[in-house]
Design a protein that fits this description.
By secondary structure, the protein is mainly α. It has one domain. Helix content is 75%, strand content 0%. The chain is built from two helices and no strands. Helix 1 runs antiparallel to helix 2.
């Protein structure tokens, strides 16, 4: 897997996590916030992090010369 792709996934995960943390902090303020939006941002952050973990696992598997798991 190209390093550029992995770097891009990491940047996307960082951005998603930062958006979630900023909105989470905003919920402590006086202005109204949406619990639905907070869950949406949390989900996006978790999914982005999962994509990074998957890409790292695929890279490790490729470095070892292993075949990807078969789907039935």
């Amino acid at each position: 897997m190209p390093t550029d792709h992995l770097d891009d996934l990491r940047a996307q995960a960082k951005y998603a996590a930062e958006r979630y943390q900023l909105y989470k902090a905003k919920t402590q303020g006086a202005r109204p916030t949406s619990s639905e939006r907070l869950r949406e941002l949390q989900r996006a952050s978790e999914q982005a992090e999962a994509r990074v973990r998957f890409a790292l696992a695929e890279e490790l598997r490729a470095d070892r010369g292993e075949e990807p798991p078969r789907r039935n």
